[in-house]
Amino acid sequence: MTAERFHISIPDAVLDDLRERLVRTRFTTASDASSWTAGVDPDYLRGLVAYWADGFDWRGAEAHLNTYPNFRAEVGGSQVHFVHMRGKGPAAGPAPLPLVLSHGWPSTFVEMLRITELLTDPAAHGGDPADAFDVVIPSLPGFAFSAPPPGRFTRRGVAEAWHELMTEVLGYPRYGAQGGDIGGGVTQWIGALFPDQVTGVLVTSAVIPADFAENPATPEEQKFLDAMDAYDREDGGYSEIMRTRPDTVAAALTDSPAGLLAWIVDKYRDWSDCGGDVATRWDRDTLLTVATLYWATESIGTSFRQYYDYPLNRPRPPVAVPGAVTLSNEPAYRGMPRSLAERVFPDLRQLRTPERGGHFMAHEEPEQLARDLRDFFRPLRG
């Protein structure tokens, strides 16, 4: 199996059609006088749509994405897109450690790009070249330029595909893994399934054990789990429709770029550590780069597959390799007891709660996460 270089090039006809749709957008009226209370603020959306139509430079964004080494390869029975950045280690010393980074929803590989140079060339950022990584950033199946999986979307299935990518396509005998959200689940499965070839794993989302049957939750753990369930009930409308009627909402979002943008930006605001102002974490060009990727690849519907197929996920065994957690500062995850992480990671080496950086940690706090990755993997490299 071999990887082929991939050049991102969206046809002019797709971009022309996108602009025509944007300028004809019909906007809704706010349901509540308080901005953002009932979802995306219509006035904010109006301004962002206007900029998407007549200010945003996709060709410039596309050229920037193509400065990264993009590839595609057949993995797990379908085409997978990934970025592969070689590390710059010491002239006379161990080779950089391979590291696969896995994003979540409603994200893309773009989330991980800010951290790549910090990881591949630490010396250029005041670090030790011995801490360098070879970084691999795959697009999840059905996201952007990765084809949907040939069967059902499960975290275990993606973990098996990523292992095939790292060991068979790229030829790495050992590697580490990091991820959050969906990617965090995939990362935990990687550590559980392949302990002989995985150096360690670090996740940034709440770590919840698969089974409490033999060892019931403690009062402290149950309090956290109850609070998490309460938050999910308040925030979970998006996931309920994607879990039960994904094709219905996808029909609307695949036809309306403004609707697609609203669906995505709602979560970028809610889940980022932005204090209600999405601009403090995401500039407009980055938001619209992500939205254009979803639009041009018509992948918003296929990105819902992991929600529809979620009941097919089976309980994950404990992660046998060394584990680490850098806990994101999302409301649902604050105050997670260390004992929950220890249930998942019997060999928990590092737990950090920085109280900054949300759902999209690699983009929001790249320096912080890069430091945590270096610290965690440093003693494991030998």
Automatic annotation (TrEMBL):
Active-site residues, as the UniProt record annotates them: D181 (nucleophile), Y307 (proton donor), H359 (proton acceptor)
InterPro entries registered for this protein in UniProt: AB_hydrolase_fold, Epox_hydrolase-like, Epoxide_hydro_N, Epoxide_hydrolase
GO biological process, alphabetically ordered: epoxide metabolic process
Keywords: Aromatic hydrocarbons catabolism, Hydrolase
Keyword Glycosyltransferase applies: no
Residue ranges of domain Epoxide hydrolase N-terminal in the record: 4-112
Pfam families cross-referenced by the UniProt entry: EHN (PF06441)
Hydrolase keyword on record: yes
Family: Belongs to the peptidase S33 family.
This protein's name: Epoxide hydrolase
Organism: Yinghuangia soli
